[in-house]
Design brief:
Elements (H helix, E strand, L loop, with lengths): L4 H4 L8 E7 L4 E8 L1 H10 L3 H18 L7 E8 L3 E9 L3 E8 L1 H9 L5 H5 L1 E9 L7 E8 L3 H13 L3 E14 L3 E15 L30 H11 L3 H5 L5 H9 L5 E2 L3 E2 L1 E2 L5 H9 L3 H6 L5 E5 L6 E5 L1
């Protein structure tokens, strides 16, 4: 018989909420999330080809895990720029809960990969870079970290980012799925689901967190690679997270709390208050009007059709019309 959360005295965070947690015996802190209506709303309004939607969903999950770690009124933006069929992904998180996303892609190249059954996330992204930007607001310096994209997954992107920018051992699992339901007389309805788990090794003793030096790429022939034996506690935590299956991350019936209990109940896992996420765009008529006000007369003329200017938000597809 399956154990129920009520038996543990735990209230489920539910869908579209990030659950921070700690496994203190392993010196691990992490975050877990299960996406539902928020993800389905974002992907549904864009109606991208399925592989593009899946790739953007992974980016949304990763942004949700990272963005909710902000402790101030700011923004976290994940953006890719590549030569691949999906030339750009943009996912934007604004404190405390607003998330929005969009993708730019070459439909012919995406369809060709789909026809060849090769539309993997790595093939869709191709080569380029991914930028993670933290904007702390006016009068504060922005921070940006870059990771080269060379045929790697978004899971590997996160690992490399924290290894090189923060020197924090990190492990990530992302999963995206589709849920089909049937309503009498209405056929099948599809909804998108996704989830993710991120853990980081944060021991009090810094020497336990040491990592091997990054290969400079031009070391003399015969140079012995620098190696550091991983801490046993971190090895155990990684092995546990690597057992997570996609269906555990995408099944709405499997709460993040039950997943964390399965992974870490022998060591003990402490749960912190969940942080909800919302499908919100920051576009407005006033903001767009302010942008148009900075256009020259020639630029205004170029975007005017039949005496009117129409602007569509790439994130939420909202349309705004202005008289010339």
């Amino acid at each position: 018989m399956a154990l129920k959360l009520e038996e543990l005295g735990i209230a489920a965070a539910g869908l579209d909420a990030v659950r921070p947690f700690a496994v203190e015996e392993l010196d691990v802190r992490g975050r877990a999330v299960a996406f539902g209506p928020v993800l389905d709303g974002i992907l549904g309004r864009h109606d991208y080809p399925d592989p593009v939607s899946r790739l953007l969903a992974e980016a949304i999950v990763l942004t949700g895990l990272l963005g909710t770690s902000l402790k101030f009124d700011g923004r976290f933006t994940l953006q890719t720029q590549t030569e691949g069929p999906v030339s750009m992904l943009v996912v934007d998180f604004a404190f405390p809960d607003a998330i929005r996303a969009c993708a730019t892609f070459d439909d012919d190249r995406v369809q060709a990969l789909m026809a060849a059954d090769k539309a993997t996330p790595e093939a869709l992204l191709g080569h380029g870079h991914l930028a993670m930007t933290i904007d702390q607001g006016q009068h504060m310096q922005r921070y940006q970290g870059l990771v080269e994209l060379d045929g790697i997954s978004l899971e590997e992107v996160a690992r490399r980012y924290f290894e090189r920018s923060e020197q924090i051992p990190t492990e990530v699992r992302l999963g995206v799925g589709e849920l089909y339901t049937r309503k009498e007389g209405e056929g099948h309805a599809r909804t998108w689901t996704a989830g993710g788990v991120l853990i980081q090794f944060l021991p009090e003793a810094p020497d336990r967190q040491r990592q091997a030096d990054i290969d400079p790429g031009d070391a003399p022939e015969g140079t012995v690679p620098h190696e550091v034996e991983e801490d046993d506690a971190w090895v155990e935590a990684k092995v546990l997270v690597d057992t997570v299956q996609d269906d555990e991350l995408t099944d709405p019936e499997v709460s993040v709390e039950m997943l964390l209990f399965r992974l870490f109940h022998e060591r003990g896992v402490r749960l912190f208050d969940p942080q909800p996420l919302a499908d919100k765009c920051r576009c407005s008529r006033e903001k767009i009007e302010g942008v148009l006000a900075g256009f020259s007369a020639e630029e205004i003329e170029a975007v005017t059709v039949n005496g009117r200017i129409e602007v569509t938000c790439e994130f939420c597809n909202a349309k705004y019309e202005f008289e010339r």
